[in-house]
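Morning!

This is the sequence you dropped in the shared folder:
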Amino acid sequence: MTRQEEKARLRAERLALRDAMGAEERVAANAALFAHGLAGIALAPGAILSGFWPIRSEADIRPLLEALRQRGARIALPVVLDRETIVFRELLADAPVVKTGFGSYGPGPEAPEVAPEILLLPLSAFDARGHRIGYGGGYYDRAIARLVAEGLSVTLIGVAFAIQEVASVPFEAHDRPMDAVLTEGGLRWFRQAKMDG
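The structure's back. C-alpha cells below.
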C-alpha cells in the first residue's frame, strides 16, 4: 500500500467514526473541548488566531473562538479562493459569515486579510507524534508554507475528537507536524509551547 493509499484509508476510517458519534456524545465532547481550549490556549492581546466554521461532523469550536475574542484575540477564518489557495480573513464581531466555496463558511471579500499567529486546524486523523491527515486537498499545507516563507512563526493546533487518533500517520519530509492537538481529552503539546501565558 502506498503512503497516499494508507492516508486515504485512515482518513475514511476516522471520518466514519467521527460521523457515527451520537448526539449526546458529541455535545459532551464539544463542551470538554471548549473547556480545555479556553484553559490551555494562551494569547497575547491582539494576537491573530484562525479557527474554522464547522462543516460535516467537525468539532464545533465557534464558542471557543468567541471566548478567545472576549480575551482580546483577533479571530480569522480560512477562505477558499480557488482549487489551490486559502487565505485568512478577519472575522469582526457580529460580522456575517457567507458561503466561501467547497462547503465552507467565512467572512466575505470586504473583510481584511490577515496573517494568523495561531492556526486551529481541522483534520481527519492524527498520531501521538503530531502528524496529521487533513482532507486531502493540501490547502492548509500550502497556506502554512506561505506564512513560514513570509518569515512568520505559526503555532499549529489540530482540533479533533479523541477517536480520530491513529497509531501512526504516514508522513513525508516536507510535512510540518502540529505543535499540539486539542480534543475532548485535553490540549496535548507535541513540541515546546511557543505561546506566552
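Headline: The chain has a mean pLDDT of 93.

More detail when I'm at my desk.
O.
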